[in-house]
């Protein structure tokens, strides 16, 4: 058997997209929200001496640097005392104020170390007893002292115990609330209320009052110490409705801008050698790319927003705020870009109106086929959800509508969807099933 290896030369032409570092960064910049963009631009300015950052209008005044009387640079933030105590700090302070320095107090301090952010105790008394050499009675007494601290419910080991601790301290709690939570918690949760009512010889309306009361208790008492106020929302575009016409404007003032350090560049070039000139040329090209990328990002977001507003004009002019079916693909085709570009352009971007601020992603929704007697038209899933909520809000709470009944009522409105879809929309809206919506008010 002979082995032959033939070589030949031929030309083949192919097209490839080279993902350069700058192209990758341009794609990433489009995805940045306003705060992320500002951080990126400031980082670029640190690396490039020819870039000066012009901060956007939304930059809070207290973030602007000032000079104190000693000539040192400082920030107003440094002059504001931190008065927000954590749950841990609050519990420690209460123990120092209320309990004498005894072994029992040391056990309370030990248990506090195992309180999570929700206020729950994450260690069992048996484990704590073994690690502290305390007796079971001492450990139980320490837990009792801990559970007497604020907020009510702190130190609980289960949700049931947490609700019981809060009910125990409330003078206005329904008379049977504590005992029902203690002995009939599972039946209450499973809505086996007839058993509870029969046991206590009361009407179902009394159990309904207890259930309504418990709904107002906190399942996570420690969360009142969560001081995270969230981030500012910086709208990228603004919509103005005037005389029935809807106009879209770019909030350029909310976007960081860059300025070229012309004086520094000219000064450096006069004394520069070849290596320095090459460095300056490279940094100037980086500035031009950065400026172009920021402008391109703003233009892309504006174009996407204009298409969205054009499709959803009724949302801004009609008091019912209807949202029509719209997909990323449709917007991409209209402005002749890739679907992924539209996805990046709406991710974390917001639109400002007189009614409030809305995320651009809100205006995208899937289609539901709606067949009428004369024609077929598209209906958005958002409209169907609103109709489901409307029907549930109007139902007789003593005889709530089942999912199948909702299907039939929607069909009369010429909205044809399956029972499974109704159940999915109900879950998305946070609406419980019909058995859990039933009320027993007198």
From TrEMBL:
One GO BP annotation of this record: DNA-templated transcription initiation
One Gene Ontology MF term: sigma factor activity
Domain (RNA polymerase sigma factor 54 core-binding) ranges: 79-264
UniProt keyword Electron transport present: no
Entry-linked InterPro entries: Lambda_DNA-bd_dom_sf (IPR010982), RNA_pol_sigma_54 (IPR000394), RNA_pol_sigma_54_core-bd (IPR007046), RNA_pol_sigma_54_DNA-bd (IPR007634), RpoN_core-bd_sf (IPR038709)
PROSITE patterns: SIGMA54_1 (PS00717), SIGMA54_2 (PS00718), SIGMA54_3 (PS50044)
Keyword rRNA-binding: no
Family statement drawn from the similarity comment of this UniProt entry: Belongs to the sigma-54 factor family.
Protein name: RNA polymerase sigma-54 factor
Record organism: Candidatus Enterococcus wittei
């Amino acid at each position: 058997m002979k082995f032959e290896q033939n070589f030949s030369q031929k030309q083949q032409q192919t097209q490839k997209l080279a993902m350069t570092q700058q192209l990758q960064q341009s794609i990433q910049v489009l995805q940045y929200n306003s705060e992320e963009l500002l951080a990126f631009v400031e980082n670029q300015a640190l690396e490039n001496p020819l870039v000066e950052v012009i901060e956007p209008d939304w930059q809070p005044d207290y973030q602007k640097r000032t000079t104190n009387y000693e000539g040192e640079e400082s920030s107003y933030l440094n002059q504001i005392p931190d008065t927000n105590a954590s749950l841990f700090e609050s519990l420690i302070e209460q123990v120092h104020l209320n309990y004498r320095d005894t072994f029992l107090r040391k056990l309370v301090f030990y248990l506090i170390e195992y309180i999570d952010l929700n206020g729950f105790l994450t260690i069992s008394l048996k484990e704590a007893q073994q690690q502290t050499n305390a007796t079971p009675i001492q450990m139980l007494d320490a837990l009792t002292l801990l559970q007497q601290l604020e907020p009510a419910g702190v130190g609980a080991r289960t949700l049931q115990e947490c609700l019981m601790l809060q009910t125990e301290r409330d003078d206005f709690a329904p008379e049977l609330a504590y005992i029902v939570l203690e002995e009939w918690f599972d039946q209450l949760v499973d809505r086996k209320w007839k058993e509870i009512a029969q046991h206590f010889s009361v009407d179902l309306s009394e159990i309904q009052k207890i259930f309504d009361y418990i709904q107002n208790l906190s399942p996570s008492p420690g969360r009142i110490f969560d001081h995270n106020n969230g981030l500012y929302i910086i709208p990228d575009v603004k919509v103005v409705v005037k005389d029935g016409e809807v106009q879209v404007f770019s909030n350029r003032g909310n976007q960081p801008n860059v300025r070229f350090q012309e004086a520094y560049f000219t000064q450096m070039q006069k004394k520069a050698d070849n290596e320095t000139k090459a460095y300056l040329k490279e940094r100037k090209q980086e500035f031009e790319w950065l400026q172009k990328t920021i402008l391109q990002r703003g233009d892309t977001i504006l174009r996407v927003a204009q298409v969205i507003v054009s499709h959803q004009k009724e949302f801004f002019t009609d008091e019912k705020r209807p949202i029509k079916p719209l997909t990323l693909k449709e917007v991409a085709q209209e402005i002749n870009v890739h679907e992924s570009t539209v996805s990046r352009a709406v991710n974390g971007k917001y639109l400002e109106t007189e009614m409030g601020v809305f995320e651009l992603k809100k205006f995208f929704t899937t289609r539901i086929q709606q067949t009428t007697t004369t024609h077929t038209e598209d209906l958005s899933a958002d409209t169907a959800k609103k109709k489901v909520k409307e029907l549930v809000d109007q139902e007789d709470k003593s005889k709530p509508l089942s999912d199948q009944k909702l299907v039939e009522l929607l069909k009369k409105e010429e909205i044809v969807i399956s029972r499974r879809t109704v159940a999915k929309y109900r879950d998305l809206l946070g609406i419980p099933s019909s058995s859990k919506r039933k009320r027993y008010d007198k």
